[in-house]
Design a protein that fits this description.
The protein has 80 residues and is mainly α. It contains 3 helices and no strands.
Length: 80
């Protein structure tokens, strides 16, 4: 996506308006927040709702793959 920054939230901020739908941004922020708490917050050592985390991760990963596939298909169509 061509984004840069120190963390996932910064990278999301740089691409969200032009590339990502709001629900995907929300899911990715949830994932980033949970990840950051696990790494940086003493005593936070389990994912509170693991099932929700997994669902949001899988949904985000699949949607990002779909966006990439659509971009690649559009580029290939322009190159013909």
């Amino acid at each position: 996506f061509g984004s840069y920054g120190n963390g996932l939230n910064e990278k999301i901020n740089r691409v969200k308006k032009k590339t990502l739908p709001p629900h995907l941004v929300s899911d990715m922020r949830f994932l980033a927040k949970t990840r950051n708490r696990l790494i940086h917050e003493v005593g936070f050592d389990t994912i509170p709702n693991r099932e929700e985390f997994i669902v949001k991760f899988e949904r985000s990963a699949n949607e990002l793959r779909d966006i990439i596939d659509k971009r690649n298909s559009a580029r290939q169509g322009h190159n013909k």
